[in-house]
UniProtKB/TrEMBL annotation:
Superkingdom, natural source: Eukaryota
V-ATPase proteolipid subunit C-like domain: residues covered: 30-89, 120-178
Keywords on record: Hydrogen ion transport, Ion transport, Membrane, Transmembrane, Transmembrane helix, Transport
Family per record: Belongs to the V-ATPase proteolipid subunit family.
Segments passing through the bilayer: 25-48, 69-91, 111-133, 154-178
Record's protein name: V-ATPase proteolipid subunit C-like domain-containing protein
Gene3D superfamilies noted in UniProt: lithium bound rotor ring of v- atpase
GO molecular function: proton-transporting ATPase activity, rotational mechanism
Pfam families in the cross-refs: ATP-synt_C (PF00137)
Gene Ontology CC annotation, any one: proton-transporting V-type ATPase, V0 domain
Keyword flag Lyase: no
Keyword Repeat in annotation: no
Length: 196
C-alpha cells in the first residue's frame, strides 16, 4: 500500500475516530477546562455589560456607584461556581495505582469511559449554564444601574430580578455535582490475570 493510499484511508476515518479513541482522562480534563473557562467568560461578559452601564449612568447620578457594585459581585459569582466545579472534578481524576497494565485483562474500560464522559458533560453543563447566568445577570445589572439613576425606588425591585438570574448558575452547579457524583476512575484491576 502506498503512502498516498494510507493518507487517504486515514483522512476518510474522520472526526469520529478522533472522538472515540481519545483518552477518558482527556475527556475529564476537557470537562474541567470547559467548566472553568466558560464560567469565566460568562462572568467577564456580565461584568462588561453591567460595568459599562454603571459608569455611564453614574455620570447623571453619582450616588449609584457604590450601591450598584452588587451587580458586579453577582456576575463574579458565576466565575466562582466554575472554580468550585473545577476543584471538584480535578479531585476525581485519579491515576491507576498499578501502572503498566492498561492493556491486560481485568481493567474496567467501561468505568474509565463512563467517568471521562460524565466529567466532560458535568463541566460542559456548568460552563454553558454559567455563560447564560453571567449574561442574564449582566443585562439585569445594566438595567438596574440605569433605572436606579432615574428613580432610586426601582433599585430593590430590579435587584430581585437580578437575584433570580444569578440562581441559574446555582442550578447549573447543582446539576454538575449530581452528574459528577458517579464519576470515579477505576484505580485497580478487577482481577489479577495480568500476573499469570
Amino acid at each position: 500500500m502506498s503512502s498516498a493510499q494510507c493518507a487517504s484511508e486515514y483522512c476518510n476515518q474522520g472526526w469520529s475516530e478522533v472522538l472515540t479513541h481519545m483518552s477518558p482522562y482527556g475527556y475529564a480534563s476537557f470537562g474541567v477546562a470547559f467548566g472553568l473557562g466558560l464560567s469565566v467568560i460568562g462572568a467577564a461578559w456580565g461584568i462588561w455589560l453591567t460595568g459599562s452601564s454603571l459608569v455611564g449612568a453614574a455620570i447623571k447620578a453619582p450616588r449609584i456607584r457604590s450601591k450598584n457594585l452588587i451587580s458586579v459581585i453577582f456576575c463574579e459569582a458565576t466565575a466562582i461556581y466554575g472554580v468550585i466545579m473545577a476543584i471538584i472534578l480535578t479531585n476525581k481524576i485519579k491515576a491507576p495505582e498499578t501502572s503498566g497494565y492498561y492493556l491486560e485483562d481485568g481493567w474496567d474500560y467501561n468505568g474509565y469511559y463512563y467517568a471521562g464522559y460524565g466529567m466532560f458533560s458535568a463541566g460542559l453543563s456548568v460552563g454553558l449554564t454559567n455563560i447564560a447566568s453571567g449574561i442574564s445577570v449582566g443585562i439585569a445589572g445594566s438595567s438596574c444601574a440605569i433605572a436606579d439613576a432615574q428613580d432610586s425606588s426601582l433599585f430593590v425591585k430590579i435587584l430581585i430580578v437580578e437575584i433570580f438570574a444569578s440562581a441559574l448558575g446555582i442550578f447549573g452547579i447543582i446539576v454538575g455535582i449530581i452528574q459528577s457524583n458517579a464519576c470515579e476512575f477505576p484505580t485497580f484491576a478487577i482481577s489479577n490475570n495480568y500476573n499469570n
